[in-house]
Amino acid sequence: MVSCDDGDACTIGDIQTILDCDGSVCIPCAGTAVDCDADGATSVVSCDDGDACTINDIQTILDCDGSVCIPCAGTAIDCGSGPVTVQPCDDGNPNTIDDVETVLDCDGSVCVPCQGTPADCATGPTTVQACDDGDPCTVNDQETILDTDGSICVPCAGTPAPCGANAACEQILPCDDGDPCTENDQETILTSDGTVCVPCGGTAIDCDAAGATSVVSCDDGDPDTVNDVETVLDCDGSVCIPCSGTPCDVWVDLGADEEIQLGDSLRLSFTTNVVIGAIIWDFDPSLSCTDCPEPVASPDVQTTYTVTLVDTSGCTASDQKTVLVDNSRKVFIPNVFSPNEDGVNDYFRIYPGPNVKMVRSFKVFDRWGGVMYSAENLAANDPQARWDGTYRGKRVNPGLYVYFAEIEFKDGRVEVRSGEVIVAK
Question: Could you give the C-alpha distances from 85 to 55, 79, 81, 105, 117, in angstroms and in order?
Answer without folding.
Answer: 18, 10, 13, 6, 18
